[in-house]
């Protein structure tokens, strides 16, 4: 079960969030942008966000997840989160009482 959950998070949910943040929202809400790239002029920041958004979208499309509409992608990510929440339930960790690689 752990492998299936990890793959859902790393290969499905991750790309959904990345596309949403970098492509759909154009990096507009990236609070940590300056920590990633340092202090740069606004016009360069805009160009970087556009280029990174394009690359993320291109990679997500190659992975298959980027071929879905924005609405479909948001709904899929919500279902992923609900599935993780359901599987976690009231357990302290995903696989039980002790942390595993999945909890990282």
Structure, explained:
- The protein contains four helices and no strands.
- The chain has helices at residues 2-24, 33-37, 42-63, 70-88.
- Helix 1 (2-24) packs across helix 3.
- The chain is mostly helical.
List keywords for this structure.
mainly alpha; 4 helices; 104 residues; 0% strand
Rg is 16 Å
- Strand content of the residues, in percent? under 5%
How many runs of DSSP E, i.e. beta strands?
0
Unreliable residue runs: none
Shape: globular
Describe the structure in brief:
This protein has 104 residues and is an all-alpha fold. It contains 4 helices and no strands.
Itemize the secondary structure elements and their pairings.
Layout: H1 2-24, H2 33-37, H3 42-63, H4 70-88
Helix pairs in contact: 1-3, 1-4
């Amino acid at each position: 079960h752990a492998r299936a959950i990890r793959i859902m998070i790393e290969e499905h949910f991750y790309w959904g969030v990345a596309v949403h943040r970098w492509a759909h929202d154009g990096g507009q809400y990236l609070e940590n942008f300056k920590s990633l790239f340092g202090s740069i002029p606004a016009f360069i920041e805009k160009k970087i966000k556009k280029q990174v958004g394009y690359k993320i979208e291109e990679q997500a499309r190659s992975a298959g997840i980027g071929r879905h509409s924005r609405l479909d992608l948001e709904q899929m990510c919500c279902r992923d989160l609900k599935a993780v929440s359901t599987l976690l339930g009231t357990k302290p960790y995903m696989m039980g009482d002790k942390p595993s690689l999945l909890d990282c």
